Amino acid sequence: MPGTEPWSPNPGTAFWDYSGSGSGALEELEVCPSWDLPYSYAYIPTLYLAAFTVGLLGNTFVVWLLARRRGPRRLVDTFVLHLAAADLGFVLTLPLWAAAVARGGLWPFGQGLCKLSSFTLAATRCAGALLLAGMSVDRYLAVVKLLDARPLRTPRCALAVCGGVWAVALLAGLPSLAYRGLQPLPGGRGSQCGEEPSDAFQGLSLLLLLLTFVLPLGITLCCYCLISRRLHRAPHLGRARRTSLRLIFAVESAFVGSWLPFSALRAVFHLARLGVLPLPCHLLLALRWGLTLTTCLAFVNSCANPIIYLLLDRSFRAQVRRQACGCTRRGARRISSASSLTRDHSSLFRSGTYS
């Protein structure tokens, strides 16, 4: 995703135009030979399908776990629910990209699915970044501002924020609908799902990268710095809230660690395509290989959150075991999460008031 759209690696020997001129400039275009990483046609589809399987099961379970709740829901639950829905939308596109990579970059699903899957990846990645920023702001208000923030920390405000996030995410995905489509592969081997070589698209993608990744990342880091200062000054906040914060911090760290390398390389790619950052061919080849690897890392993040919950949240593990063993009883109390079963109040998923 250059900012908001996916990078689609195209296996096989090809030639890239890195001049950045897609507007009919008269200067001679620099053409560089390009090769894919060895055996990428095998391990990349395998990785995508593994992420699809884990992400589909894990995020579906999280959505079901929180959506089945009866009664009041904590504000953080709302963000977690929407985040899982965004990841679920993301993983549903992975089999399409896996099939394309396995076929040497050939896209066999037509123009419509190319645009739709590109739009879905763009919108859900943007939604994930903004939801995590919203979650950080909510935790900042809950820990630092406390009673002063009560008018802002209501279920209606949380739903309004999530609605606004999805509206922005859908808008951020529109360039993918407009500028991504079937592009001819070298040698007349068919078409790939790729972006048009347009300067306007490169500039817009760079701007969206700043607004939908760098800005939310800055907000998140600022909030956690302020939260950290507050925790050092007020150790009485308690183990439960600290544990919940560590779990949320792990989720956000996984997102940043997965998407930051990709976003940095995509920014370099946009600058190279625009001609602002001329690069020799050997660096351009290294950039392409780096984007291939960081794309895999970024895509795998779509299945990371349920794994984090499973590793760090004892109550979530208890609920998974109960569902896996078919031990849930119809006559049991209505619950929103595993924490209601185990009474583990340090769980991110525990039921209770809007705290």
General description of the model:
Helix content is 65%, strand content 5%. By secondary structure, the protein is mainly alpha-helical. It has a single domain, classed as Rhopdopsin 7-helix transmembrane proteins (Up-down Bundle), CATH 1.20.1070. It has a two-stranded antiparallel ribbon. A hairpin with a 6-residue loop joins strand 3 (180-184) and strand 4 (191-195). Helix 2 (75-91) runs antiparallel to helix 4 (110-145), helix 4 packs parallel to helix 6 and helix 4 (110-145) packs across helix 7. It is globular, with a radius of gyration of 22 Å.
List the helices and strands and how they pair.
Elements: E1 14-17, E2 31-34, H1 40-67, H2 75-91, H3 94-102, H4 110-145, H5 155-179, E3 180-184, E4 191-195, H6 199-233, H7 239-273, H8 281-300, H9 304-312, H10 314-324, H11 338-342
Antiparallel strand pairs: 1-2, 3-4
Secondary-structure element order, N to C: EEHHHHHEEHHHHHH
Instruction: Say what the CATH topology is.
Output: Rhopdopsin 7-helix transmembrane proteins
Structural class, by secondary structure, is mainly alpha
End-to-end separation: 35 Å
User: What's the Cα radius of gyration?
Assistant: 22 Å
Total strand count, please? 4
What is the residue-mean pLDDT, rounded to a whole number?
79
